[in-house]
Amino acid sequence: MKLEFIHHVAIICSDYEKSKHFYTKILGLPIIQETYRKERDSYKLDLAVGANSQIELFSFPNPPKRPSYPEAVGLRHLAFAVVSVEEWKTELENKGIDVEPIRIDELTGKPFTFFADPDGLPIEIYEI
To answer: Strands, E, within 8-52: which ranges?
Structure first.
């Protein structure tokens, strides 16, 4: 048995239109498919991340809040590989996104930083 790659990450949002704008317009992820599931009163938005990965963005009526700070058990953050952390930081800040100062990974020497999606999910950009 061998895991080939991460196929998708599922995210439940509190405000579908706000999160859709964030992931498609701010981060620039292309839409693969958008589905409204009437029986669940729920949207599912499939977004492409590179050639092999996806984000599934879900909306549900009144989802419970996710504990994030201090560090909660479970998924800690979502990380994207980028060519230039500095360029991404500048672009995100120009779009009104608060971005933490750039840090250097002690183990790899690579720059990285964090910002949050509209629901406070920590997102990392990591230079490759």
So the answer is: 8-13, 31-37, 42-49
Q: How far apart are CA 23 and CA 67, in angstroms?
A: 21
Beta-ladder partners of 56: 10, 46
Which residues, in sequence order, are bridge partners of residue 80? Answer: 125
82, 99 Cβ separation under 8 angstroms:
no
pLDDT in tens, 25-42: 999 999 999 999 999 999
In order, the DSSP letters of 54-88 are EEEEEE-SSPPPPP-TTTPSS---EEEEES-HHHH
* Length in residues, the chain: 128
